[in-house]
């Protein structure tokens, strides 16, 4: 594992979600990703029992939950189809609009990893428009409208309704434009299904018989690297440690990862912090800090300035990575764009390496993680 890869994969909630499966693969492949718990959904744990819903039944349920319209291109996958989630998809047309509508079912261990419960992180999905709603009975509904290509604010639009039951069962319904269109300012006119209708499909009890047949996975355990600090607390602490003269907005984050967008009058810049705990002497951290400076108290400091590993034309990331001798780790970084994967909006990140180093070594982080 390269140092560059290890640094890139430290962030919780690092992917925005057009497809849940991509987020699963990110967590399973990242050696030092924080915030990923036991991420094996039930459909990957063992075979289903007899009488499992078929691909045709999955498609039929989806069709019955949609308003009257034109259906074509139906495809499905039943519960007994190996390691892939039960799913169905079709092309749906109504009122002159057409979109691909798909549904996938999952069952997670509890507590469900925050990455699969919340709206996409705006550091990685800066053009996401998302709401979260708690539903009586312990369920949570998220409704997200994002461009299919997260780094561009136009083009093909994707509307996703995700409903997660308190027991870890999850229904994800997506609607994707067949052709790029003009994004409406506040409505759903570019897609045949409004957000409320898509949410009704996700929350329908018609999926419960399928979910109940999926084997129950083991309960989740918090990943060893996770600092356990809520992202918004990290964002608030980060804002308080910033130099004066910056306009600070959009505090956000996920477990162990917080960020803000700052502007010093020369353009917007993302500033983020990751807080983790590792076992002292962990070999993965030894690899990350091979080329670092050691302070008198044993603290190791790694400083880097390089093209952003998340992409974006002209994007540069500055980072300071601090590891205390007891395994407490803080990474503070700044990018010359308001989000990862975006084209640079200014010549350099808003903070210097010296400023990032001061923030990363500040005692606030230790107090915050207690």
UniProtKB/TrEMBL annotation:
Domain of life: Bacteria
Name of protein: Uncharacterized protein
Organism of derivation: Streptomyces bottropensis ATCC 25435
